[in-house]
User: Which sequence fits this backbone?
């Protein structure tokens, strides 16, 4: 199995195709398999790499809680790029992976040719309830494991559209989730998801970000809509795509639309057609008509 020992842990990855590197970073409830529908498409044109975060076998699952934080996951990805001798790449992430992609670009913009941040920003709004939910799920995972929690978690409000549209795809997602190690997931939930900065807290950094950024969100993914709009307003070199009647597991729920949207974005970056928005006045009138 292709494994890189970086940042004190073994990181599993799969690589397909040739061309400019395109890295896929998965969500909390997924793993590298969650990107299969994207790898099949993009490996025709890019060197695609989908990897598992620490805490997700076959990557290492450290037993110590202090081995998990967003900073550590960002460093894992950065060192993985170094291990693979990749100087610059496209980084595409969903949810937790979208946060990693965004924060990698803030911390190491030189390695990011462009980023895709999809379904990103959970925990930014409704913070008190979010913190209670995270701690409760982490505790329940340690008590009963994913085999007894997967059905409840996979039927969360932002995943109901996935069940409706693609019950077979949702069942595959559910069955994979049920195999995840409970202790690693609990550490990820407490150490990464709970403690990472909210999107609103990144405001000053977002206004300085120059890396081309595509933000994607489903209009049924309530906790991520406001953060996505905030990112669009603060990142000058960004664009926002909102998918109708779509929830959180956006790349699996709408794979064709997701792939086309990302491919159009990457093509625009490659051809120089993607550009920062110009400075604009709040006035609706052109300059020569303003009082």
Assistant:
């Amino acid at each position: 199995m292709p494994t890189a020992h970086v940042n004190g842990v073994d990181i599993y990855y799969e690589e397909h195709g040739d061309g400019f590197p395109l890295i896929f970073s998965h969500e909390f409830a997924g793993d590298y398999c969650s990107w299969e529908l994207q790898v099949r498409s993009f490996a025709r044109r890019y060197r695609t790499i989908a990897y598992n975060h620490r805490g997700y076998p076959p990557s290492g699952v450290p037993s110590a809680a202090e081995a998990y934080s967003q900073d550590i996951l960002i460093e894992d990805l950065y060192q993985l790029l170094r291990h693979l001798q990749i100087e610059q790449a496209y980084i595409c992430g969903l949810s937790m992976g979208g946060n990693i992609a965004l924060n990698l670009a803030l911390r190491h913009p030189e390695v990011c040719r462009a980023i895709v941040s999809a379904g990103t920003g959970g925990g930014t709004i409704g913070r008190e309830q979010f913190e209670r939910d995270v701690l409760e799920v982490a505790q329940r995972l340690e008590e009963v494991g994913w085999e007894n929690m997967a059905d409840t978690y996979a039927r969360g409000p932002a995943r109901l559209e996935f069940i409706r549209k693609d019950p077979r795809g949702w069942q595959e997602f559910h069955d994979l989730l049920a195999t995840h190690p409970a202790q690693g997931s609990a550490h990820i939930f407490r150490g990464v998801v709970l403690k990472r900065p909210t999107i609103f807290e990144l405001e000053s950094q977002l206004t300085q970000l120059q890396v081309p950024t595509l933000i994607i969100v489903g209009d049924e993914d309530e906790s991520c809509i406001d953060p996505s709009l905030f990112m669009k307003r603060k990142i000058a070199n960004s664009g926002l795509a909102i998918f109708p009647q779509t929830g959180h597991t956006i790349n699996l729920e709408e794979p064709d639309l997701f792939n086309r949207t990302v491919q159009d974005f990457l093509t625009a970056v490659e051809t120089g057609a993607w550009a920062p928005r110009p400075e604009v006045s709040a006035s609706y009138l052109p300059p020569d008509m303003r009082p």
